[in-house]
């Protein structure tokens, strides 16, 4: 049956702006660290924020500017808090500023290394990094006057070539295109001609640096030992940077004729390849974070201050007139390159003021030092050796007692007669001061002047919003950005989502349908919480008395259409109606109606499932309701499970024994990994199941796909967001990895009974086999593994049920194996018949059933691909989506007594609470969509519990080894509803039998 067409609106507008969405997904941090880390103690003269350190310091990493100024504005001149074991003292005022920038023992490098984290460090990939003093020496060598003069023509050539790519007229996003210019010339200045002219490698380099900056998350900084996704991304990006730059260092080292490029200069200086790469990485990082963004802010400031724009333009034209022959017809970039360096540095006073003022306004971040010297006395407080000091540059740069109307752009404040920057000591820190002046100031200012000269003299420009009008509001700097130079939310709205403003002017409000309440509003805003906090979104409206409600979702797809003189973007806007249901009648409809399609519901509204279609593997997409189910049932046949049972138990036993004879494990890591191992074994082949590295790669790719299901990625599949790229990259990596093993098994001399061989014998293509394997593993990754962990936590918190299950499992072993046998436990368990596992564990079945009732409270989705379905006084039309929250039944007190309580007995004869209403239990699916993998999923849980409960004794503990005061809860806003929030519970275990 063909998919119905949604409402489609096609628009066209010039493709002249682009923006990068930074999608930051929340990472669960083990809260037990809050208990492990003792509260900080007050020191005389310094206010102590107190509290649990990890909570107190969290906003220091997420909203640093707000964190510091909240406390400074409350009258605290100095205050302290703890980050892990480190004491951090925040300072303000002139006296503190003098100490901060002058005291000899305060280390800049050590301060940023621990509390900032975005700069690439070679030691993260086991390559010795260059020391701070050595770096500065080499930087000064590379920006020596003669070196800059040699490279100046090449810099102008690079800028000219890139600006010509913009065309003769159009619109650009300065935070993309102008930023890229500065990045280009920074790379040229820091490396060599070969790299600067390789556009692909420049783009890779840029991406690696952005990945590094994004990896400076609170978790990565607060828990550097924790194997978070950000930590892995940091290492991967650093390694990729090192490899790319090392390639060019090696290329230049082998060159028959040396050049005057920076790499050759450092080679001649006697540096190793590693030392050269370290210097380059540091120089480029400064260019990425500071110089590029500052150039963009200068253009914005000049765009709204025409008098200063006019002054700077006249000054630049005078510079050209004074130092070049105006009768020559040479291109602008060649004439600019002929101007002496001294003229650039001395004959542009107005531009120098503009740069100075822009830096004053934008440089309001936090400077950090660590005391590696003697103790320092400040007021009646001692700054001890090892302490960290934080100084917000806004304390001086945005200080109304120093600068009149400090947020106003007024370069004249530095001119003779005003000289506001001379009112106190160190009142201007845009280029560093005291013991840490910016060593790269000379080249940074030169880079800005190169770009601004080419742009201001070669082009005329004005600021416009996405509609081509002068902006009503200018972008504001995001002062909570750790690097302090991004344009923040307003710029995000103005540039990146400008297209959505156009769309919503056409599709402003959804329409009410009969008896279904309409949320109305702008569709993308009304539906945003559906993607970010789905459980809360649905419950909020249901709890307000709405039995049914509807909202609309827009999805924007685009294609490029090229015309002779311009490029247009044609966008197809798909408008979907989503109806949220509750109550028994709706539940019957949802689970029984023939036309409601599961696959289309999840494909469009969920987004976390890997799809081969996205990487142009057309033959790999198996229809969920038909092809996939057939293959899944083939692989989960009773005989196949019986054959593989000994292998599965052997795999589990081997992994469990790696834990040791006693210790503590995190179930959501270690037990979860057991489920992954079994699912991979059941879905693929022996070779992959035994390859630990490839299993780790597989899981990383699945996590990347899952985390890429961001609202932006789902609502704007056309948009080249980072999440979109991550998703496609991870899906492609999944396909490549799995296809390798399909190819391996297809070429095997002797076929096996493994799933891949079974599907090969079934006549499936490699693509179909990979698609099937991906689907099976995804279900095991998301559902079975986490439910297995929740079962163990529930048993640990309910000893009476734990004892019942343990005794039941021991009886199973005794009834079906020789109790006198000396065989290991896993081999005895493997001898238990499959029907016994399925029929002789009624108590464990109740425990699994109750665990799933509590955890499975997410929204299930369908799409109506059939005829219209009457509902209330309305109609669920063909093409509409339907959402049903399982919490409507699983957490319903009219069905389940005290529904939040773990009580497996509620299903027993005489109670049977799950029989009170139609489809009152839907954890394994219901109606037309029962879970075809239920049989194997339950067996996986039983196998692990049998090995663990019979072979070990265990108890729940917190990070201190005590019984937890509180247990983790299910994060119901997680799209898959099974991750944990709250304090981490560990399983403290001791092996009883082999």
Automatic annotation (TrEMBL):
This is Cytochrome P450. The lineage of its organism: Eukaryota, Fungi, Dikarya, Basidiomycota, Agaricomycotina. GO terms for molecular function: heme binding; iron ion binding; monooxygenase activity; oxidoreductase activity, acting on paired donors, with incorporation or reduction of molecular oxygen. PANTHER family: 24-HYDROXYCHOLESTEROL 7-ALPHA-HYDROXYLASE, CYTOCHROME P450 FAMILY 7. CDD domains: cytochrome_P450 (cd00302). Keywords: Heme, Iron, Membrane, Metal-binding, Transmembrane, Transmembrane helix. Belongs to the cytochrome P450 family. It comes from Laccaria amethystina LaAM-08-1. It comes from the Eukaryota. The chain crosses the membrane at residues 20-37. The keyword Zinc-finger does not apply. Its cofactor is heme. Pfam families: p450. InterPro entries: CYP450_sterol_14alpha_dmase, Cyt_P450, Cyt_P450_E_grp-IV, Cyt_P450_sf.
